[in-house]
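Q: Give me the 3D complex with zinc ion.
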Amino acid sequence: MSVKIAPSILAADFSCLGADVERALVAGAEFVHVDVMDGHFVPEISIGPAVVAALRPVVSKYGGVIDVHLRVEKPEERLGGFCEAGADILTIHVEACLELRRTLREIRALGMACGVTLNPGTAVEKLEPVLREIDLALLMSVNPGLGGQEFIPESIERIKCLRKMLDGVGSEAHLEVDGGVKTGNAGEIVAAGADVLVAGSAIFGGQKSIEGNVNAFRKTIQDCH
Ligand code: DX5
Ligand code: ZN
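A: Here is the predicted complex, encoded as structure tokens.
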């Protein structure tokens, strides 16, 4: 499975968000990761369907994928709005969803790919019951909050465990990792079994340009294959 780069727009310059996203796509990023926060499931409030709708044309122009990570309570109440806005993937937290299987099926019934995710403190085994019904499993490698946090080292074992679980049921789902991903740890994360790397501050922040950061990730990924 080829490894995909998913810049997290949370770290982009919101005063020129479309231009930043276009630069990342032109440089070769395949996914655009949108962290939606409601101020309840996590303390911060970020963005909603209007931003997804605004980004849809530029992402489509480059054949990109809008990868929405719902860090919200009652995600089952949010599906239609993100579907209309043009989300391609909608990922929900096991901790926030009472009817996980039903909500995942509803996401697919709306025509989007469905993802499930879990915080660092939640056992990976919690995903067991839905492994055959997902298109993406997202493993948080930092505690939910703002971008720019340190990667939690124990996440590597969790990635290996999740990869084994997905392979064990013959799942083709993506294994995405989100939080503290840098070029310095990307090789280890991919070697552990991830195939989608979310990176916010490592793409939109730091000394290099967006293009330089995306290229640095691509080179790291190529070197580890
Ligand atoms: C944590 C952050 C990250 C974000 C990526 O809650 O919100 O998930 O997507 O940020 P970096 O790559 O800067 O950790
Ligand atoms: Zn995220």
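A quick observation: Residues 4-223 form a domain with the TIM Barrel fold (CATH 3.20.20.70).
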